[in-house]
Amino acid sequence: MIKNENISDEQFNQKVEKDLLAHLTVNQKRNNIFIFLLIAIVLVGMFAYYRQIRYGLIVTSMRDYTSWGVYISNFVFFVAISLVGSLISSMLKLSKATWSTPLTRISEIIAIAAIFCASIIIIVDMGRPDRFLNVVIYGRIQSPILWDVMIISTYLVISILLLYLSLIPDLALCRDKLTGVSGVRKWFYRVFSVNWKGSPEQYKILHSIIAMLSIVVLPIAFAIHTVTSWLFSTTWRPGWDSTNLGPYFVSGALMAGAAVIIVAMYFIRNVYNLKEYLTDKVFDHMGKLLVLLSLIYLYFNINEYLGPAFKMVGVEGEHIIELFVGKYAGMYWAVQILGLILPIVILSFAWGRKPLPMLIISMLALLGAWFKRFLIVIPSLQHPYLPIQDVDESYRHYIPTWEEWAITFASFAACLLIITFLLRVLPAIPIWEMKRGVEPKSQEA
Amino acid sequence: MKTILTLFTALMLSGFTGWAYLQNPEKAPVRIYLEHFKSLDKNQLSVRVLAKINKRYKPASGVEVTLYATEISATQLVGTITTANDGTGIYTFSKEQREVAESTKTATYYAVVNESEKFKAKETKITIRQVNLDARYFIEDSVKQIQVYVTETDSVGNKVPQKKVKIKFLVERPLSPLPIGGDYHVTDKKGSASVEFPDDLPGGAEGYVKLLVRIVENDDYGTVEVSDVKQWGIPTFYSDITAKRSLWASGANVPIPLLIGIFSLIIVVWGMIFYMVYKIFMIRKLGM
Question: What ipTM was estimated for this complex?
Fold first, then answer.
């Protein structure tokens, strides 16, 4: 937070406005290079997808056994990341953790980008994307797949609302204060600021619907990842036949969400020069939060693996052996140690909660989160309860093809592209929530 | 620059899916597999067309195949079919065509794919001889049996037994028929083959089963089938679990509480969303 607390409210607010609007008018060449790099990655991914459409899913390594490959693990990862919006904008807001106020906008932007990419990647996974609507038209309402389609589209709309509602006063500020921006942006600020004048009545409505949305988003956010976990737990495969899967997925998602906000916060604070707002104190709080969420996730991890490992029943036992000492052991232990234990240990110390160590630890946690989803999806599929006789050797192994990797990296690039684009036109930190004493009192009050 | 970039990306997104389907500049060579099927009530010609795409032969859909009898000429046209997604197509003879086919001892059929924008021209033919497949279904000493005689009719009308013809005895089942008495049988010098019908096979609610006797994909006769329905199976009452309302039933039999629960949630959540959107318009109105 701004160090000089003795300045008047007016001076304080002027400084906040100046600081937080600055990045919207500066043309950053580094930023442009980054955008072109992302576009190039997306184009390579689009070429890979063109090949997938032209030749079919045969260009991937997915076969009858591993019918959900890297696309689905990537989808689960994006759904997990999208929980960051509700973590910061709902859970922390409702618990009156005011230190998290500068993070709300960033978290809501990440949530939208992630859930959008999750929706795209699930269509990419379809061999015939033109038949997507058949899922809705001919879908069975009993199927968790249909629930997932419903909950993802609902969460996307709610995430957009969550971002937009808290943006209205800031869009009005952009409309009134920003000069030298393009005509399209001026039009955008004018139309989407919905005649905001900051009257007491407008504030009253805004506060009431933001409060309502903060509560509504919570069950939806929990549901989105719980329903995603049901896609697995309602399918009879080793490793998925678990009642623990819902909370296991949700806790993992919250941990990944906290990690992604730390990574985003680090780069945004340095690139947009926002060190006075995204302070070391905020990092410290986020570090403690990540430790707490990692501990919860560790608890569910122990629950998830201890029972089956103790019993070692049939194919379930083979699956556990493959994870613990078999061909996936390296990845499994790297994920558990570097992506889960290490963050708990390092971030428990004050020196570990400084920005740079936190960036490194959060990157490890994020990588761990991605590979954890890979480990949830792939090894289970390679051990069906009803194996096919004389199965082709290619069914027994799964190594993603270059097309799958290209599309996966393109989805990351697209997610970053959306975030970067939104941060170029929207204030990264909610200005009106950072100001002091700007809200006029209602006449009724 | 930004506008150009945006337009370029939008064009790529919207256009490349269609482009993917359209890219196929060379005419693909094709293979045609033609088979004749004859049963008690119909004669059919089935074709399967494969096209060489990217060095592999794959089922070719939407290919027009013209069928001729005796020779490739307009007067001998049997009919035209278009292949489905799996590259196959079936032509069923009309009553008149069936009578003509039954009256000839040997018949030759041609399948022709004409050169088109996508495919090279190709033709293939099969020649089949008329065969008599006479099946008897009887019970002897409480043993249910099926006996079949395979014969050809010579020029003076005598039935000549055909030996070493592979015969399949089957019971009709959903998805695919169930072989009985082994995978196949071979006719002896009398042109005969037989099989015992097992005692433990389930039938319909009253024990009816449909028995099929087939000569399958024979080089001389094609596929020939005779069938009959007998009350030889164990009467079985099936309770169709998908017909009851349950989580594993079809979409039409969704459990009512689940239906009410899901739609209630949708109405409540989306009701709140629309309420919030309405409030945004209220904010707009207040600022006017």
Answer: 0.89
